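Might you be able to consider the sequence and fold that I enclose below?
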Amino acid sequence: METCGKHKNDNAFVYVVCGADEHINALNYSIVCIKKYSLFPIIVITDSKRNSKKIEHDNIIDIPTPENYSHHAASIFLKTGLHKFLPPGKTYCYLDSDVIALSEEVNSIFDFKPEPILFASDHCTMQRFSPYAVNCGCAEKTKEEITQLESEIKKHNPFFHSEKLQENNYFREFHRIAISIRNNPIKGLRLAIRFLCFLYFTHKKYFRLNQNIRYNRKNKTWIDNKDNAILFHVLNYYKKIEKESPFRFRFLKMSWVNKSGKNVYNCSCEHLSEAIKNKFNVHITDNNWQHWNGGVFLFSDISHNFLETWHQWTLQAFEDPYWKTRDQGTLIATVWKFKLNKKQRLQKKFNFIADYYNPENTYCEGKGFTYDNFRTAFNPCFIHVYHQFGNKNWEIWNAIENITGIPYHE
C-alpha cells in the first residue's frame, strides 16, 4: 500500500490521555485498532503519575501537568499544548482516545495540508453546545424541566427509561421510523389514518408497523415479534399529563413543549458567544454556526500560532468560574479570531460521530453508517464513539468490532 505520497517519518498519529481508567481502556482499544491499519508512528502524550492503569504502548511522551488541575483539565492542558510537547518538523493527526480506526484509509488524512489547521464539523451547532460550555444556568434549567416532565411520565408509563426496553434495538428502530414520519407529514398523515382506522373500525388485536414492530391493542403497547415491549405510546397518557402539569404534547413534531411552547428537550442559548465577546473580544456573527469537533485534527509547525492561542485562552478559561472545563468553547473563539470560520473542513469519514441517543445514527451492513437514517451514508475510516463506548447492545458498536475484527475488553 502506498504511503499517501509522504515519507513515513513525516507524519504521526498522536493521542492524549491521563487519569480515569475508562479513558485508558478506550485508548488501549483505539491503539490496537489503529495499529492494524496505520503506516505511520503512533505517539501517546500523558502525565503518567495521574494514571492507575497501564497504557499498552511503547511510544509515550510523559509530560507533568499542574497538580491543581483535575484529570480532565490536565488532559485539555496537554491536548491544547501539543505544539509544545511534540518534535517539530512533522504533520500530526490528533485523535481522541474514543476515536477508532476502521480501515487503511486513515493514512490518507495526511494527504491534506493543515494551512494552518484542519478539523471536522461537530454534530451540533454552537447554540446547542453553548449551555455546556459556560455556567449560564441554561443546562441546569433545562435539566430541571426535563426532570419535572419525566416525573409525570413515570406515573403513567410503566416502561419509561426501562433498561431492558432501551437495550432492545427495535426501540431505536421505532424511533427512526417516528423521526422519518415527523420529517414527512404526508407519510405521517397516511399512517395516522391507518392507525385510527385500526383503533376505531376494526377488532384486530395487532396493528403492524413493519415486519419487526406491531401495536398490541389490549395493553396499548408497541412490541416486537417476541412480544417484548418497545414503547408504551404517549397516546395512552398525554392527556393526563396535560391535565396535571403545564406541559403539552405536539403531535406533528412528536415532542413535549413547556408553557412557552419551547421543546423541553431542546437546550440551546447564545451565552457562549456573549462570553467569547466579553472575555476574548472576539465577535461571532453567526450564533448558529456549526463549530469544529476536537476529536480529530491535523496540524504541523504552521499551526503554532493557532494552537498557542487556543492553549492560552483555555488556561485563562480554567481560571474563570463562568467557563466550564471544556476545550471547545475556546476553540470556537480561536477559530473566529483567526477568521477560519468558513474554512474547508475534514470530511465526515475522518471523524464520523456516533451518537447512541440519536436513533437515526445507525449502521446497516451493505449500506454503511448514517446519522440521518440513510438519507446519507458513510463508510468512515475513523469513528468517534464519544459515549456508550463498548456497548454491545448497540448496532454501531457491534459493527465496529465486526469491521476491525477486534473485540473490546475493559
User: Anything to note?
Assistant: The first strand starts at residue 11 and ends at 16. Residues 8-130+289-366+375-404 form a domain with the Spore Coat Polysaccharide Biosynthesis Protein SpsA; Chain A fold (CATH 3.90.550.10). The chain is about 35% helix and 15% strand. The first helix runs from residue 21 to 37.
